[in-house]
Amino acid sequence: MLAKNKTLDPNIEPASLPQAKHLQLITRTYQNNTDSDYTEKIRDLGKEFNYGVNSNHYWGIPELSVLYGTPLYNVASTSQKLALNHLFWVGHYNFIAASEANTSIYNTVTNGVFRQIGNYETLCQELDFETEQESYHIRTFQQIGFKTKMAIVGKAMLGNSLHSKSDQDNNSLFKVLIPEFVRDFFISSRGNSRFSIYRDNTLKAIAKTMLRDKKPYYSQYLRDLEDKGQPIPAPVDGLGGKIAPRYWLKFFTTHWGMSPFMACQYYSLRYMANAMLKNQEYSYVKYFRELERKGEYIPTPTAVSYYHLMDEAFHTTISQTIAKDMYKDFPKPTAYEKFVSGVMIYKMQCSLLSGFSGVLPNHAGGDDILLMLFVYKLLKSPLFDMETKEALDWMEKCFCQEHEGFHVGLKYHQSLLESLQNFFGCLDYQWKINREMGIMTSGASINKALQNNVKIFKQFRESIVTSI
């Protein structure tokens, strides 16, 4: 039963619980989620995973492979293609694991707001339960990922010495050009610099000033951090780490943890993550069902993908319900709240949805220098065992010349675009460019992807040559 707590603001009327369809849907979703055993199956599959048993099977359709459709993939051996299929799964779920760790944080932040409001106890229980589920998902992804990477490439993919060297060179130049007292203000080897502390405190003060009438709803989670003198968490990995710089994430988090509307609006951002996951994961589900129909062996990672999407279906329903319906329980957003929510989604489009990959089909976001570094190290690893020049020549063909991989990437990009347009088109408080996913739409071009890659690869090649 939902708790009959009194709301704190007379302007916020508690929803008529027996009649509110969205609250009935939340209750049914919570009951179905807690009754299912998908999480337990994922946990057990992770514990039992043995790469040797699964190594001679595709874990998804061939196009879900690193470098799929590239000239190099076309000449790869059968064993290399299997490994590329497995590494795609590992990379995909490594990103999901980091993103789900982010979700656990923000579930807790927003949950604190809903608990302060009252009358949403079942929702709070569902969010707590989701956070517990995510911990099992993350552990399983990490178990399978570690064993797979060690079996295929060993320690060859660990570390990032190229970027470390570059950073050291830049820091040396910085020390020569900038006076010491200025460096000490902007940079600290002991943690946050004085500048970053002032900046974060200023942004927090702006948020709290603009939301001062929402103070009674301030999340207990954020209150506890303040009492302990700890900063607001801001992830650097996963989806959260790609939305915006860390100081923006802290700024946004203050809003999500203070305003009932903004707490709901966070779930429109979470829905983007849900939609990206489904766009990537549904192909594994179809592959699972096809193997099951034929009575063929189902690899453990394929089964994990299947049960994970079953779990995440409940989470997606919650995101949709809060973002599209529950926010209407509260007063209409102010101009300031509309502005901040618009900035959030706009930044998400720019940072993660403005392009697509030609070497990682079904991967949101364009090819960048970190992905090029990953492919370079992969080609130098025991899987391909290439010399530097050979690796760079193949990379130029894969990243900078049109091939099937770009067309596959565009296909998945368009599928995700349609899903997000359908969702955000219903949110009348959002900017037009967000309702229509304008930035994402403009990035749906193979020519633009190639132009971007040519420029980035030139920089990457030069950094490799100068580091030798």
TrEMBL record:
CDD domains: CylC-like. This is NocN. It comes from Nostoc sp. CCAP 1453/38.
